[in-house]
DNA sequence: TCTAAACTTGACCATTTTGGTCAGGTATGT
DNA sequence: ACATACCTGACCAAAATGGTCAAGTTTAGA
């Protein structure tokens, strides 16, 4: 069970964006340099974030990306969903032919995986981008 | 973010084992048939479970496996740990050369992943095999 | 003692996912 | 017009996943 780097990068990039997104749009090149994420890979990620209305793009010279909502309204669950990072425990929900369905001993552990998914998702639903920025600011004051 | 089938199978197999482990040891062949998990794959999994003292093997004819502890003392975290199913969110803890270390913008989101890991692990630490068996019994009564 | 059942070990492998790169665009401010 | 920056899609190497296969060893019971 692990988080893929796509989801991790998406969150890192958005925190970066949120911090520098005051007046001017932020270019992916800047985020790439600051966060050490390849530009090409960032473009893939931001393409998905854009499709999911989390960021807006401004093309042309001095263009870049801006958040399309208040950081408080961007939950981690939105970000992960946008980049296809899903909490997936069992197959049987999606593919009725595989997994627990149609089997004599079906779903012995089905309830468990449901519970687990809910547990994780509730964490992602509570946490917003704003929370992460605040966290960072506190760190700067303290450190 | 997903659970691998190795962890899922381990839990399924152990629930099965716990339910049939009354007097006689349970053979992997029986578990394989009941749960639809390949015998060869089960052997790999049970080899790990044995090394981690979750099950004991009884060799020879009429042999098989038994739980080596009370189902109440076997937590999901033990099972997942045994089959190398770990909750892994960030790289930087293990490999100091990669990830957030040594970078100017280091660890923007580090606290977040820590929190997430704790959140998930706490779920696994609370849940025992006994809980799952009880759950199944209730289902049988109700259904 | 022989043999079948069952555990044990380790090599091997096909497929899928991951984590990108590369090559070409298109749009737009100056 | 040109530099900057977004946009799109093909491509790819490496690792993880989810197993199979082969060749044992151990032990109960006929």
CATH superfamily of chain A: Winged helix-like DNA-binding domain superfamily/Winged helix DNA-binding domain
**Largest inter-chain contact set:** A-B, 37 and 38 residues
CATH fold type of chain A: Arc Repressor Mutant, subunit A
Low-confidence stretches of chain A: 93-99, 101-106
**Oligomer classification:** homodimer
Spatial order of the strands in the main sheet of chain A? 1-2
Average pLDDT of chain A, to the nearest integer? Answer: 82
What series of H and E elements makes up the topology of chain A? HHHEEHHH
Highest-level CATH class of chain A: Mainly Alpha
Note down, in words, how this protein is organized:
Two copies of one chain form a homodimer. With 143 residues, chain A is mainly α. Helix content of chain A is 52%, strand content 6%. Chain A has a single domain (5-142), classed as Orthogonal Bundle (Arc Repressor Mutant, subunit A), CATH 1.10.10.10. In chain A, α1 (5-20) crosses α2, α1 (5-20) crosses α3 and α1 packs across α6 (129-142). The model of chain A is unreliable at 93-99 and 101-106 (pLDDT under 50). At the A-B interface, α1, α5 and α6 of A face α1, α5 and α6 of B. The structure holds a DNA duplex (30 and 30 nucleotides).
